[in-house]
Amino acid sequence: QVNLVESGGGLVQAGGSLGLSCAASGSMFSINVMAWYRQAPGKQRELVAAIISGGTTNYADSVKGRFTISRDNAKNTVNLQMNSLKPEDTAVYYCNVEQDWGQSFRDYWGQGTQVTVSS
Q1: Per-residue pLDDT in tens (0 to 9) along the chain, 119 residues
Q2: Contact predicate 48/38, CB 8 Å
Q3: CB of 112 within 8 A of CB of 93?
Q4: How far is it, in rounded angstroms, from Cα 69 to Cα 51?
Q5: H/E/C letters for each residue in 29-88?
Q6: Quick one: pLDDT at residue 1?
Q7: How far apart are CA 75 and CA 63, in angstroms?
Q8: How much is the pLDDT for 44?
Q9: Three-state SS at 62
């Protein structure tokens, strides 16, 4: 069991910055991928950024160059630094962890944190 709690969301003006943090607890073994997703009302959930176990990162084209995902192993946190925010970034942001169980994978999700960017 992995428990994820997001924090850091809020209201920010376009062009501003926000830093999201995901605090993880529980059995953090064999974590293949840690990622941030987001979902706006009426839209499907989309991948924002992911960091692989080896440190490789991937970003959605829409956030490339503006967002940075990182992991602090000592604190068991996954962070998402969001700069140059745009109104279209408004969404609920979710932390996601994929855990390798050998024959299968398990996905864990946080409750989400609201990010609102005003124009």
Answers
A1: 899 999 999 999 999 999 999 999 998 888 889 999 999 999 999 999 999 988 899 999 999 999 999 998 778 899 999 999 999 999 999 999 999 989 999 999 999 999 999 99
A2: yes
A3: yes
A4: 7
A5: CCEEEEEEEEECCCCCCEEEEEEECCCCEEECCCCCCCEEEEEECCCCEEEEEECCCCHH
A6: 86
A7: 25
A8: 97
A9: coil
CB atoms inside a 10 Å sphere around CB 14: 13
Q: How far apart are CA 41 and CA 96, in angstroms?
A: 19
Residue type, 61: D
- Model pLDDT, residue 99: 92
Q: Which two tokens stand for residue 68?
A: 């940075």
| Nearest of 91, 76, 68 to residue 3 by alpha carbon | 76
CA atoms within 13 A on the CB side of 29: 4
Q: What is the SS3 assignment for 19? A: strand
Q: How far apart are CA 51 and CA 119, in angstroms?
A: 30
Cβ(115)–Cβ(105) below 8 Å: no
